[in-house]
Design goal:
CATH architecture: Orthogonal Bundle
Mean pLDDT: 91
CATH topology: N-utilizing Substance Protein B Homolog, Chain A
Strand content: under 5%
Low-confidence stretches: none
CATH class: Mainly Alpha
Shape: globular
């Protein structure tokens, strides 16, 4: 898989956090790779899992950053898809030295276009621009 496809898989796995308890996520990961993993190599599966786990452990910190940066919005008011995309991008901007800020924002906007509603791409871009 290329980087965009890997990021999309991380997004899909991270999205499950909104609907499952933390204790249920290991089972959700296993189910995810049963459904999505047919196309993923062992290396891709390891990358997706590792990146998901790193983001998940920093979620309280990431959410606090989003809440303090997104004026007039907080994580409880955001749509689940937009929030998941923003969480992924904030992680990449703040903690992943392999991903340049511009790439993280661009990829987040592309995810919002693909999975979000009308206006999601502009919203995601606007929130993430404050992190740049």
């Amino acid at each position: 898989m290329n980087r965009r496809e890997l990021r999309e898989q991380v997004f899909k796995l991270l999205f499950r956090v909104e609907f499952n308890d933390k204790e249920d996520m290991p089972l959700q990961c296993a189910l995810f790779f049963e459904d999505e993993g047919a196309a993923a190599s062992e290396q891709d599966t390891a990358y997706i899992t590792t990146k998901y786990e790193r983001i998940a452990e920093k979620l309280p910190e990431i959410d606090a950053l989003i809440d303090s940066t997104a004026k007039g919005w907080n994580t409880r008011r955001m749509g689940k898809v937009d929030l998941t995309i923003i969480r992924l991008a904030v992680y990449e901007i703040r903690y992943d030295e392999d991903v340049p800020t511009g790439v993280a924002i661009n990829e987040a906007v592309e995810l919002a276009k693909k999975f979000g509603q009308d206006g999601s791409a502009g919203f995601v871009n606007g929130v993430l621009a404050k992190f740049a």
